[in-house]
Design goal:
With 98 residues, the chain is α+β, with helices and mostly antiparallel strands. Helix content is 42%, strand content 19%. The chain is globular. The termini are far apart.
Length: 98
């Protein structure tokens, strides 16, 4: 449970809508799966540029898992119908951030 509370605490500090952060925890013979739900407008903060923030979160969870002899995986839930992530340059080209 320490892993779930950790990731929830860290992500709430990163996003604009901390009340929308929810972490589901499931355990099976493969290990622990944490599924992170955030407000769709906060996805960029959780993923980070080139996925670096998500990679860092996964690395920290891996360290917590190693400390507790558990394999921990993080899944970032993307709601159906959400748009694929675009690079900043392509957003500028179509005027998304203009």
């Amino acid at each position: 449970m320490q892993d779930q509370e950790f990731i929830e605490h860290v992500v709430k500090a990163l996003v604009n809508n901390p009340n929308d952060v929810k972490v589901d925890r499931t355990t099976d013979d493969m290990g622990v799966l944490l599924t992170l739900h955030v407000n769709p407008s906060d996805m960029g903060y959780v993923i980070g540029r080139e996925g670096n923030t998500a990679k860092a979160l996964r690395l920290l969870l891996k360290i917590i898992g190693a400390k507790n002899n558990a394999r921990i995986n993080l899944k970032i839930y993307e709601p159906e119908g959400s748009h694929p992530r675009q690079s900043y340059a392509s957003q500028q080209a179509v005027g998304v951030n203009a």
